[in-house]
Amino acid sequence: MPDAGQGIRTVIVGLDGSADSHQAVCWVADLAGPLGAEVVAVHALGMLDQLEPGGPVVPTQPHRDEIAARAEGPWSAPLSAAGVRHRVVLRDGNPVDVVLGVADEARADLIVLGCRGIGGSPALLLGSTSTQIAQRASCPVTIVPGPARTDEPTQGAF
């Protein structure tokens, strides 16, 4: 945890091109700028990846350059637009292990994630990446709600 006098210097944000990830990146851009914090945007490369929401699932290896270009371009664009000091890290592996590993290496003061990833389903929230990271992280974790969805229950529905 950061010293009270030092504040938040390094923020990790999960990056996958989903609408929820975009919300998290925008939230971090608004937070990190005034704090002068560095942002490390992390994308975990698995055996398969999805380049855009609703798009086909493709093998990662032949698309590494395209994934890197998206991560460094449109997926992290809010950070660039806000003038936030940032870097993008792509690593092979399970998203939970990758985010936690990068957070430990960077001595992160905060991890920020969208509540659901690119393939996220409301039914899978209990075992979700964001929940697992929140349970295992050595620093605070913020889970940013995604944009309003029409497939979610209305208030009062259980």
Overall, the morphology is globular
Strand content: 15-25%
**Could you say what the CATH topology is called?**
Rossmann fold
The termini sit apart by: 37 Å
Q: Order of strands side by side in the largest beta sheet?
A: 5-2-1-6-7
Largest sheet: 5 strands, parallel
Order of helices and strands: EHEEEHHEHEHE
Low-confidence stretches: 1-5, 119-126, 152-158
CATH architecture: 3-Layer(aba) Sandwich
CATH class designation: Alpha Beta
Secondary-structure class: alpha/beta
Report the total helices.
5
Query: How many extended strands?
Result: 7
Global Rg = 15 Å
Report the mean per-residue pLDDT as an integer: 83
Total domain count: 1
Helix content: 25-40%
CATH homologous superfamily placement:
HUPs
Description:
- The protein has one domain (10-144): Rossmann fold.
- It contains five helices and seven strands.
- Helix 4 runs parallel beside helix 5 (129-136).
- It has helices at residues 19-35, 64-72, 77-81, 95-106, 129-136, and strands at 10-14, 38-45, 48-50, 57-59, 86-92, 110-114, 141-144.
- The chain is of the alpha/beta class.
- Strand 3 and strand 4 (57-59) form a beta hairpin.
- It is globular and about 40 Å long.
- The chain has a five-stranded parallel β-sheet, with helices on both faces. It has a two-stranded antiparallel sheet with strand order 3-4.
- The longest helix is centred in the N-terminal third of the chain and has 17 residues, at 19-35.
